[in-house]
Amino acid sequence: LATTTARIIFIGLSAASSVQPVEDGSLPKIGAAGNGDDVDGVPSLSESDDCGCVLGEGKFCGNDGQCHFYNCEEYYKYGPVIYTGYGPDAPELECRDTTAETEAGERDSSSWSVAFRCRSLDPPPITRGWTRYCEASTPLSNFTCYGLAKNTDFQSFLTEAETSNLECNSDVYNETGYPQYTYTVTMSRPHQSTCLTGFDGTETFDRNKALVGTMSSSFETLTVPPTSSPTKYPTASPTLTITPSSSTGTIGIGTSAIVAGIIFSLI
Predict the structure, then answer these.
(1) In 10 A of CB 178, how many CB atoms?
(2) Beta-sheet pairing, 185-189 with 215-221
(3) Angle at Cα 145 formed by Cα 39 and Cα 133, nearest 5°?
(4) Dihedral angle sign, alpha carbons of residues 208, 123, 31, 21
(5) What is the rounded CA–CA span in Å between residue 86 and residue 111?
(6) Closest-CA residue to 102 (of 116, 112, 94)
(7) pTM
(8) How far apart are CA 73 and CA 99, in angstroms?
(9) Can you give the chain as a three-state secondary structure string?
(10) Are 24 and 211 in contact, with CB atoms under 8 Å apart?
(11) pLDDT recorded at residue 73
């Protein structure tokens, strides 16, 4: 908790620039949000399930009653407020693209944009990182999201996938239909992170699904401690101390005016 708070405070104090700068083709490092295993039976993280959105088609039910693709821009505006912090006074989402990609950890599904994988993580999946970074910050909250730039080059990822000879023989998971290309959707907020189905996995890679329906978001909040109350009682007035001098017939300097006034009033 202490580490998280320190990080949020840092973001709040540096929120004037909002988006972390993309320099030398790099993106901010993404934090872990999942272990890479599929999560069955997890409901769509949306405001409502009344839109008629079909599971596996890359969409969620927004707070406007419409279906929207799982990507940073649409999820920030139409997703659940507890996962985004969006509202009438919320800052605009600012995004940057780069030709480089974030580092993809083989056991951290939130760091992948797309993967060619078995359902199990043994053998390790072939993955590609993110090429787009978005952020909306205030002194009290921070929403960050990774996505894919429209000009993302998938060629090296596809070449590696096609030559990998990946075989899926897990004794734990049902590997029917695997290996396949998967399209990442993860989101997190304090004490909760979720990896769920956006688009269903495909036997052949679908570039359009990757570009419009993948994301990895995180929402953090900062609780500001109360300020100390003013002193309940007024400070006592300073007391006047008369200190006799050690010499006979003299008085301390601080009381000379008072004593002189008394003497002259008696004459």
Answers:
(1) 20
(2) parallel
(3) 135
(4) negative
(5) 24
(6) 112
(7) 0.67
(8) 19
(9) CHHHHHHHHHHHHCCCCCCCCCCCCCCCCCCCCCCCCCCCCCCCCCCCCCCCCCCEECEEECCCCCEEECCHHHHHHHCCHHHHCCCCCCCCCEEEECCCCCCCCCCCHHHCCEEEECCCCCCCCEEECCCEEEEEEECCEEEEEEECCCCCCCHHHHHHHHCCCCCCCCCCCCCCCCCEEEECEEEEECCEEEECCCECCECCCCHHHHHHCCEEEEEEECCCCCCCCCCCCCCCCCCCCCCCCCCCCCCCHHHHHHHHHHHHHHC
(10) no
(11) 97
Contact call for residues 46 and 185 (beta carbons, < 8 A): no
CA-wise closest residue to 37 among 128, 102, 107, 105: 107
Q: Which two tokens stand for residue 191?
A: 């004490």
Question: pLDDT value at position 64?
Answer: 93
**Longest CA pairwise span in the chain (Å):** 118
Average pLDDT in the 205-228 region? Answer: 86
